[in-house]
Amino acid sequence: MFKKVLGIGAFAAAALFAGAATAQQGPIKIGIILPYSGQFADAATQMDNAIKLFVKQNGDTVAGRKIEFIRKDVGGIAPDVAKRLAQELVVRDGVDILTGFVLTPNAIAAGDVSDQAKKFMVVMNAATSIITTKSPYMVRTSLTTPQINEALGKWAATKGGVKKVYTMASDYGPGLDAEGGFSRAFKEAGGEVIGSVKMAVANPDFSAYVQRAKDLNPEGIYVFVPGGAQPPAFGKALSERGIDPKKIKVFGQGEITDDAALKSMGDAALGIITGFHYDPNHKSAKNDAFVKAFNAEYKRNPDFFSVGGWDGMQLIYDVLKKTGGKTDAQGLVDAAKGSKWESPRGPISIDPETRDIIQDVYIRRVEKVDGKVVNVEFDKVEAVKDPVKERMKK
Amino acid sequence: MIGVLFDGFAYGMLLFLLSVGLSVTLGMMNFVNLAHCAFAMLGGYLTVTLVNRFGWPFLATLPMAFLAAALVSVVFERLLYRKLYRATDLDQVLLTIGLAFMSIATAAYIFGTVHQSAPTPSFLRGSIEYFGINFGVYRLFLVAVGLAVTLVLVLTLEYTRFGQQVRAAVDNQRMARGLGINVDATFAATFALGSGLAGLGGALAIEIVGLDPSFALTYLVYVLIVVSVGGLGSILGSFIAAVLIGVSDIAGKYYVPEVGAFLIYLVMILLLMWRPAGLFGKR
Predict the structure, then answer these.
(1) What biological-process terms (Gene Ontology) are attached (chain A) (predicted)?
(2) B120: closest chain A residue by CA
(3) How many CB pairs (< 8 A) connect A and B?
């Protein structure tokens, strides 16, 4: 196995030098690496559907050149597979751009290929802060976990009317990142974290954790759990333990109140406050059109995976127009730096220094509107940069 | 304290409902059925479909979940399982874990990978308060169902003719046949009973832990722990093991959250060191 990877790597390097010399003509090839199967297949579906919708609406020709997609299934958290697929895409299929990437480990692994092979790469979801430092040709159109959670933490301490919180997070990378970001900003803004618990990642029953939080009697609770089955289980534990989010404020990152979770939690979710960059109920003409078209095509609301994919495609089309269809990585990434556009989520831009996204973080509360339980945006923190890379600069 | 005990007990009841079927098939028939939780998942998906697509009330779907899982399991038993009753454990494991993976792929194909839920009626939601302690209504319901199932099962297997036939068929097949017991039919019925109970457990689990295609493997661990700690073939053993695991899990998470989720494994190890055959194991 190791020898094989090495072999492919060497072959890749050789082919790259050859490839760089002869300018490519014909279609522009875009390699998409997503977990189409396995535990994260739903995220891949939501994202890929947005990509397809974008192409349907904007045509498959940019700057006079046809766009061709090559899709690869990485199957889950598998950095070695992601790296191999990225190498195959570059060497065998001759792609000009790498994109997709729901999961951080996969994005980091493919980042090496982007760096060494000098290929433009667009990360459409993976949210760990440092990913974009792995390759100078990488741009991100989704979010970073600290971006959302530090904005929320600061908001909770200054405008949220809460000075003492208890934090609860799943004991794995994203959970620790999110909880760390929230606590840091909350404390910096004058709040106090009175206690904290790390919960097992595969944890089916939250009643004990929630009971303990309740017994400590905090003014607020911050929670981060992986999406899927856990947010509704957590919401139900809240209501069963008699915690009313209208009295003890419950904060979290947006996934805990996404469409599927809200459907399952029902009224138990009312009053939960989340910070996030996108919700299908965001009010803007652009988003209305996006949600309507998405529903017409796929009978379902888009989510943050979809908007990450949509904006990734928007960026790719925009930069190709700017370079006149030339696909050398340096030209593309230069064109991407400082790009600004109106996304369904609101105004966004690419930070010219970090190549990461700058966007508004919306503060939402779960409310009942026309008999439906939805996230209602009631405040926002404007133009938030990734705070970790801001600190790294100092 | 009482709240923690109650939550643990209710969680234990859920584990019991999920695992008692395996205790029946694995314990009574000596068949290593790692696809057990796939039948639980089948019950769960049936409930989700009936509630969300056809507007059935949640409670009415529960017997259907039992019946559907039982019926489907009989088909599998006749076609596949029966041929392996005398095969080695390894053969049984390979067949059934394969079935579990197939069920995951099938569920993902039909229902997608999205997380599913089935709204319960409003009288099963929320909590009631006694002496300052919150009792989740749904958990009370789980406890009631768990106790009822235990009672019915123990009575059936210990005191009815069917129970006697099952035990005879298991202990000595040749003798049982000689006495005119239809061993094939008895095994099929036992298997259906065990899988049906799994289906019921799967339907009841949705409200607490949710449902997605990976259910067939996620809960297999808990189910195997309960059955091995309880001792093969003992309904009462499974019951006590499930309660022990449930209570220690919840209490661990409450009092020592640092090790919380690991505690059930510790309890399992200690109990199995003390009684290698399980609490009520006969072999």
Answers:
(1) amino acid transport
(2) A264
(3) 103
Per-residue pLDDT of B75-134, as tens digits, reads 998 898 888 888 888 999 999 999 999 998 898 888 877 778 787 887 877 777 777 777
Q: Which residues in chain A are contacts of B119 at CB distance < 8 A?
A: 264, 266
For chain A, what is the mean pLDDT? 89
* ipTM greater than 0.95: no
Q: Which residues of A touch B129 (CB under 8 A)?
A: 242
The string of pLDDT tens digits covering residues A248-262 is: 899 999 988 988 788
Spell out the domains of chain B, with CATH numbers in brackets. 1-274 (1.10.3470)
CB-nearest partner of A197 from B136, B219, B257: B257
Q: Is B256 an 8 Å CB contact of chain A? A: no
Q: Mutation test of the interface with chain A: which of B208, B214, B245, choosing the one with the most A Cβ atoms within 10 A?
A: B208
| DSSP codes joined into one string, chain B | -HHHHHHHHHHHHHHHHHHHHHIIIIIIH----TTHHHHHHHHHHHHHHHHHHH---HHHHHHHHHHHHHHHHHHHHHHTGGGGTTS-HHHHHHHHHHHHHHHHHHHHHHH-SS-B--PPPGGGSSEEEETTEEEEHHHHHHHHHHHHHHHHHHHHHHHSHHHHHHHHHHH-HHHHHHTT--HHHHHHHHHHHHHHHHHHHHHHHHHHH-B-TTHHHHTHHHHHHHHHHH-TT-HHHHHHHHHHHHHHHHHHHHH-TTTGGGHHHHHHHHHHHH-TT-TT---
